[in-house]
Structures are given as C-alpha cells and as structure tokens.
Fold Dehydratase.
Amino acid sequence: MAAQIKYADVEVGTELPAASFPVTRATLVQYAGASGDFNPIHWNEKFAKEVGLPDVIAHGMFTMAEAIRVVTDWVGDPGAVVEYGVRFTKPVVVPNDDRGGLIEVTAKVAAKLDDNRVRVDLTAMSAGQKVLGMSRAVVALA
C-alpha cells in the first residue's frame, strides 16, 4: 500500500482531519496485555494515587500510538510514516467511569521537505491539557 496523498496537492498549513480517541480502563488492560507493560499506574487506582498521580493514567506509548492515527488515516498507509517523535508533557487521566478519558488530536502540515516528504505537527489534548509536546511526524507522500 502506498500513500494516497500527493505531495503536489499538499501545502504548508494543510490541516488533517481531527479525531478523538476514547480511553477506558478496559482499553488500558488490553494495551497492557499487548505491550507487556503492566505497570500498576495504568490499572490500579490506589497505587496510582499513592505515587502522586491523580488517577490511573494511559500508557505513554498508547497515547503516542493513538495520536499518529490522525496521520496514518490521512495518508492511507501506516508505512508512509518514516519518522515520529514526541515528548510526554502530561498524562492522560482515565477515570473509572462510563466515559473514561479522551485524547483529542489535531494535525497540520508544517513543512514540505525533499523527496516528496512532509513534516506534520500534531497536537494531542486530554481534559484541556496538552499531553504530547514536540509531536512531529515525517511522512512520505506519493
């Protein structure tokens, strides 16, 4: 599968479709099983609070993975992402209720690079706070 977006059709400032990703405690348990990261801050409310967190928090790598979905959905090919990096700035808090947490992601093309590549800057928010800083992906376009 190749990128479905053409380099010539993209301008700096192009906004990608925004998306929101719900996160529940069940999601975190499933992710723990898939990733092997069973740190109790991701599933044990008592432990999370004892170590100074407001509640159970989502795995950083889970948050990072959900955020890049905005880019992979836009480009149509996960393999088109050739670089991706973030700084973890705030945790995604996941209360034990019907709503859980929510990761809200926006992104835009920040630069056109050589070799039909673009840099996409992402903004990931949860509960009104930026949860990923310096979130950037380099994407190879058609």
The longest strand covers residues 101-112. The mean pLDDT is 97. Residues 7-22+60-140 form a domain with the Thiol Ester Dehydrase; Chain A fold (CATH 3.10.129.10).
